[in-house]
Amino acid sequence: MAFDIEMIEKVYATMAARVDKARELVGRPLTLSEKILYSHLWEGMPSQSFTRGKDYVDFAPDRVACQDATAQMALLQFMHAGKSKVAVPTTVHCDHLIQAKVGATTDLAVANTQSKEVFDFLSSVSNKYGIGFWKPGSGIIHQIVLENYAFPGGMMIGTDSHTVNAGGLGMLAIGVGGADAVDVMSGMSWELKFPKLIGVKLTGKLNGWTAPKDVILKVADILTVKGGTGAIVEYFGEGAKNMSCTGKGTICNMGAEIGATTSTFGYDDSMRRYLAATDRQDIVDAADKVASYLTGDDEVYANPSQYFDQVIEINLSELEPHINGPFTPDRGTPVSKMKEEAIANGWPLKVEWGLIGSCTNSSYEDMARAASIVEQAVAHGITPKAEFGINPGSEQIRYTIERDGIIATFEKMGTKVFTNACGPCIGQWDRTGADKGEKNTIVHSFNRNFSKRADGNPNTHAFVTSPEMVAALAISGDLTFNPLTDTLLNDKGEEVRLNPPTGDELPKRGFDVEDAGFQAPAADGSSVQVAVSPTSDRLQLLAPFEAWDGKNISGAKLLIKAFGKCTTDHISMAGPWLRFRGHLDNISNNMLIGAVNAFNQEANKVKNQLTGEYDAVPAVQRAYKAAGVPSIVVGDHNYGEGSSREHAAMEPRFLGVKAVLVKSFARIHETNLKKQGMLALTFANEADYDKIQENDTINFLDLTEFAPGKPLTLEFVHADGSKDTILANHTYNDSQIGWFVAGSALNLIAAGKA
């Protein structure tokens, strides 16, 4: 039986009437995305239509999911909200704080020792507030959500950008910062600008070496890392129906890499099969009663250009396997073009590591198809040229693939089986030799490949591809190897061509597991004590941020003018810093240390205008804070791309940065800044970025008139006394301005005014 089946049945009980009313108000057929949005309005029954990309709308999500790295700060904030229990079903998943090094058993034991304090905190706070807790080793949050909690037509938010993975089961699942999660856990509405809609029509059928991963790799190449910003991507067509549910999840998962609000697919037989296989036939029975409401209207899919803001069409029968990268997930290269691209760009051709897993590609089907390639290599006497590692998506997946001999197949090739956790995908990889900084190539089935993300080495060229292509490239040890046309030499000197991968969509004998790792909360958590030591370097109780004093900000210093790509990895790195995710003061020592200073092209080296000397970004900002001097950060396009980590907003807020002024924002980061009481501003004229000088002092001239739709005027005073006055746009509405005035959204919740 499904978790929270009563809640799911309630969603379906109201869906038909709400969607019918929305169709009447909008005056046309509806996409699946619109059906889910309108059926989850905070007001209940729709009373008006909304303008895409313009109207801010209050929603009522069905559930919340948190991973351990972000859950710490989210739950520390929730403790301030004054609630006795979460208002909607909520889960916490321990998957980020487990480092991959030796192998699953050893690595999990080390994590349970090193992060015991954090795991104990998350366990106790979950127990107290009615939150389901998934223990370390249980699996990766998004795989567990797909296996246990996702359901067609639902709306979920999660404190991780890849929450969107649940779109593979027909949800609108959206990544947010912890403050947004706190709103929903506290029983408040959740605000989102009504998204634009991108339709992707899939025709044909995947075949040969092409996998679902190649669909999103192609879409990322088309749309780029910011092409989906402010939009939901809805996939449809016969090609979509021909794909497995977990394959759909892979596609939705990497929608985060194009900046999309979320991605989704309509309810179909692949979802029925997956739900039944994961012991949720009760959801199938309930969903089938409203099946027509769990997909887009026929007219929409017949004439998509009339109903979507943008339409992309991909013929799966003609789609070629892709390898995206390095350093960005949207640089797509068909496998047939990789040789010329790699040579032309000087990419290292030798593949050092192949890695399969992460929340993107760790399903039974993924593991089975990759194992089929390994099995061929072993059978033909081919010695792998690269090292190889896998991270099963969940304990249920691991147990089942061990039972079915898939792990044994991998181990015949010397594969390291890491813990059921994120591991290398998020920088939790103690890779031997990475500290040497050598130029090298790795291939993986993850979602992101930013510089230093996997192993901390800025010279590691990471390429994203499907699990089966990872296996082939790792076996060959050659980035230019094309398994569709090339051969390998076996131990007898014979040329062998690998056959296309095969693998069951679902295990023939069903899924199996002895201990999935779930801990149900106490029915009454009032007596549960949540202890946080005042001397801890891992956890720190939060103090409210100060409210705005009602005056213009004046005499602010430029902290950094960031050059080029500045993701949340640049603003608040993961890897070794994950251990401080529950301690705001300590983790603030990584603030913007990865951002490149536009004035010297160096990272973590900015000018302290009080002394004239150069120092680390956090050190300079702490000096400004100690002196009572406000500061601002200036950035380029798509600032805050990547993970949902709100630490990238909380750290500058905590250290005294007043505003972030950029050419454009990634959606989640802009919202996170707003929630923490920061000013998130964009240049009205992008060319004004070039006017910002290293020794600038900034004065806000009309912040006292802060209002929706009204640009702010900023005066930049240069070292020679000259000035540039620029306009800065913003997207704040009245409620969000209230967050700024109060000092943060949480301050309003705690005061009972939200």
TrEMBL record:
Which keywords label this protein?
Iron, Iron-sulfur, Lyase, Metal-binding, Transit peptide, Tricarboxylic acid cycle
Q: What class of enzyme is it?
A: lyase
Q: Which residues cross the membrane?
A: none
Q: Which residues form the Aconitase/3-isopropylmalate dehydratase large subunit alpha/beta/alpha domain?
A: 34-477
Q: Mind naming one GO cellular-component term on file for this protein?
A: cytosol
Pfam families listed in its UniProt record: Aconitase (PF00330), Aconitase_C (PF00694)
Record keyword Protein biosynthesis present:
no
One GO term in the molecular function aspect is:
metal ion binding
Q: Which cofactor does it need?
A: [4Fe-4S] cluster
Q: Which E.C. number(s) belong to this protein? A: 4.2.1.3
Q: Name one GO biological process term.
A: tricarboxylic acid cycle
User: What InterPro entries does the annotation carry?
Assistant: Acnase/IPM_dHydase_lsu_aba_1/3, Acoase/IPM_deHydtase_lsu_aba, Aconitase/3IPM_dehydase_swvl, Aconitase/IPM_isomerase, Aconitase_4Fe-4S_BS, Aconitase_4Fe-4S_dom, Aconitase_dom2, Aconitase_mito-like
**Which reactions does this protein catalyse?**
citrate = D-threo-isocitrate
Q: Which pathway is this protein assigned to?
A: Carbohydrate metabolism; tricarboxylic acid cycle; isocitrate from oxaloacetate: step 2/2
Enumerate the spans annotated as Aconitase A/isopropylmalate dehydratase small subunit swivel domain. Answer: 558-686
PANTHER family the UniProt entry points to: ACONITATE HYDRATASE B (PTHR43160), ACONITATE HYDRATASE, MITOCHONDRIAL (PTHR43160:SF3)
**NCBIfam families for this protein:** aconitase_mito, PRK07229.1
* Family membership noted in the UniProt record: Belongs to the aconitase/IPM isomerase family.
Protein name as it appears in the record: Aconitate hydratase A
> Where does this protein come from, organism-wise?
Flavobacterium rivulicola
Lineage, uppermost ranks = Bacteria, Pseudomonadati, Bacteroidota, Flavobacteriia, Flavobacteriales
